[in-house]
Specification:
about 375 residues; alpha+beta; Aminopeptidase; Alpha-Beta Plaits; 2 domains; four-stranded antiparallel β-sheet; 9 helices
Length: about 375
């Protein structure tokens, strides 16, 4: 049975997204047992106070002088609402179906197989697997792993994130900022609206302003949108408060932290046009955009991987509209590339992965790391 199928059949739905979900403990145990039997030193790394959310760091044996390569993937998945058999891991030809098949247990499986093969071949340097929890929510796993690597004696020269890219290298990833807006009104009977301030009406004005700003940003690849909105408690009463979550997507060269200031500017404009308008904004989370290095270890290993995947002209690189954890590795001083196998139905009820892509990726990753590490050791 393919390792991808084994992993899909283990429920690892993220409890940060779905209360009381299984989490990553079972899949971490499964992979830890396998890798320990193949000569890896395995370490469970959890966020402070959260032993129920482990990540796995598996450190291969060092062989001669050479670079350290970290292969990274996430073990958690989104929820399974609407899926008939989310953990069946059924195979139909070259398609394997189930939650996490494409995002991203197939990438994890391929990287595990590649790491085992690189170790068996005694490739110069060291291969480290960083298989993390909580990527689909708050990145608690990767943050804990990056903090733990120095304590474990791991000093990476480069990292490979095996997220689904359909075997093309990612050239850029968009970042994001999530901003919570609270609007203040004044309750009054709806038959006498002049005695109150309707926060729901102000919410409507905010949503229009956000949409207009979003259209202006779209020309440069960014976006601004409201994804959650609520206000009011009962009929016949003007709402005394309203709330919205506003999401700003950023491109390389923009700062995700500026998303808060942009929303505050919109609130200030609305306040100037209506003196009864009162609102405040709070940054919930911000993640920076990312661009593949043009030179250095990541560029060199990326070129080797492209060559090994295609044996010809490389696939057109991906400008991903969503965020992955590569910027966290990059911010920690680890040059990073993003490339992995995929299929379809990511986060949907019909998720599947192309097993031919998984096989090609495992072989190509092994070849690319071996070539790159050998050249660095010579």
């Amino acid at each position: 049975m393919p390792l991808t199928a084994e992993l899909v059949r283990i429920d690892s739905v993220n409890p940060g997204l779905v209360p009381h979900a299984a989490g990553e403990s079972a899949i971490v145990r499964h992979l830890s047992d396998r890798l320990r039997a193949r000569g890896f030193d395995t370490h469970l790394v959890s966020p402070p106070g959260r032993p129920d959310r482990p990540s796995l760091v598996a450190v291969g044996p060092a062989c001669r002088s050479g670079p350290t390569v970290v292969l990274n993937g996430h073990l958690d998945t989104v929820g399974v609402d609407g899926m008939v058999e989310p953990f069946a891991g059924t195979i139909d030809g070259d398609r394997l179906r189930g939650r996490g098949a494409s995002d991203m247990k197939s990438g994890v499986a391929a990287m595990v197989v590649a790491a085992e093969e690189l170790t068996a071949r005694a490739v110069p340097g060291r291969v480290v697997l960083a298989l993390v929890a909580d990527e689909e929510d708050a990145s608690l796993g990767t943050e804990a792993v990056l903090e733990a690597l120095p304590r474990l004696g791991v000093r990476p020269d480069v990292a490979v994130v095996g997220e689904p890219t359909w075997l093309a290298l990612a050239q850029t990833l968009r970042g994001y900022a999530l901003v919570e807006v609270t609007l203040e009104g004044r309750a009054a009977h709806s038959s006498q609206p002049e005695l109150g301030v309707n926060a729901v009406a102000h919410l409507g004005r905010l949503l229009v302003a956000v949409e207009e700003r979003g259209r202006a940003l779209a020309a440069g690849g960014g976006s601004l949108m409201a994804t959650v909105a609520s206000g009011g408690e009962s009929p016949f009463v003007l709402a005394h408060s309203a709330r919205a979550l506003v999401e700003r997507r950023t491109v390389p060269g923009e700062s995700a932290g500026d998303g808060l200031a942009e929303v505050e500017d919109l609130l200030a404009d609305l306040s100037r046009s209506d003196r009864t308008f009162r609102g405040s904004a709070r940054l919930v989370i911000a993640r920076e955009a990312w661009r593949l290095d043009g030179e250095g270890p990541a560029a060199a290993l990326g070129a080797e991987l492209e060559d090994a995947l295609t044996n010809g002209p490389p696939l057109e690189r991906v400008h991903a509209p969503y965020w992955m954890e590569a910027p966290l590795f990059q911010a920690a001083g680890i040059p990073t590339i993003v490339c992995g196998p995929a299929g379809g139905g990511l986060h949907a009820v019909d998720e599947w992965v192309d097993l031919e892509q998984v096989r090609r990726y495992a072989v190509a990753l092994t070849t690319a790391v071996e070539r790159w590490a050998t050249a660095r050791a010579d």
